[in-house]
């Protein structure tokens, strides 16, 4: 993939609030929502970023952790989701504790994030995190994310967001509220937490698939690599089913 170069070369000019910088801070988040026509209206409810990991008591303890780390404007992320992740989730989502995380680099001086493909990628990441926060069912937010990724060059055009939201049963206004909450700082916090998680797990390749808290497969430069147990959906489904059966046996 095109992430082999460091996200933040030491030679990169530090211009915190210039539009040409790849840094995306809470100030940029607010500015971009205005530019894109995502006019915000304050709401009284919160969109908690951990909703995607809340669950009922019915079999929750046996679900298998499956986490996918991507960048929203990365063609490898699109292909990885399309060829592996989405087909797997379509078949076995009820046995998976799914999480979508993002890759970038946090910046200390303005509590922001730098994204490999610029500020528009940061905004795309926030959109997809807001979808997961507002619609914690992976069938909804993963479908929306896949729709966005299939047209990643257009991220974050409003027409793309509206079309993908409509196609997958999401309300554009709810995504808008989440993104613009606290003048963009809330969505920025979601992204910063997600990027920090990927960094803490030493994940830097988009796309990285982690199963049961271990790296299961990478998709890099247009091909699957380091997939010792196979890179086809049936291979990952098999591994998930095995882990699920084992966990279920232990919990009984």
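Q: What amino acid sequence fits the structure above?
A:
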């Amino acid at each position: 993939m095109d992430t082999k170069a460091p996200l933040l070369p030491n030679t990169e000019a530090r211009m915190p609030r210039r539009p040409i910088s790849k840094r995306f801070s809470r100030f940029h988040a607010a500015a971009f929502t205005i530019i894109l026509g995502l006019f915000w209206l304050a709401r009284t409810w919160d969109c908690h970023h951990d909703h995607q990991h809340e669950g009922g008591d019915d079999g929750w303890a046996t679900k298998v952790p499956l986490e996918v780390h991507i960048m929203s404007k990365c063609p490898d992320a699109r292909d990885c989701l399309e060829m592996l992740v989405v087909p797997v989730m379509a078949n076995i989502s009820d046995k998976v504790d799914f999480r979508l995380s993002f890759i970038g680099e946090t910046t200390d001086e303005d509590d922001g994030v730098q994204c490999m493909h610029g500020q528009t990628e940061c905004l795309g990441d926030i959109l997809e995190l807001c979808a997961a926060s507002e619609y914690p069912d992976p069938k909804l937010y993963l479908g929306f994310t896949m729709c966005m990724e299939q047209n990643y060059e257009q991220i974050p055009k409003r027409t793309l967001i509206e079309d993908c939201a409509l196609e997958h049963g999401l309300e554009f206004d709810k995504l808008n509220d989440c993104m613009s909450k606290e003048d963009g700082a809330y969505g920025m916090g979601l992204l910063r937490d997600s990027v920090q998680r990927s960094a803490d797990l030493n994940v830097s390749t988009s796309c990285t698939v982690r199963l049961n808290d271990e790296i299961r497969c990478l998709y890099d430069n247009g091909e699957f690599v380091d997939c010792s147990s196979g890179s086809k959906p049936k291979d990952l489904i098999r591994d998930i089913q095995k882990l699920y059966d084992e966990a279920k046996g232990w919990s009984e």
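Q: And what stands out in the fold?
A: The helical segments are 26-35, 75-92, 119-134, 138-150, 158-167, 172-180, 185-200, 233-251.
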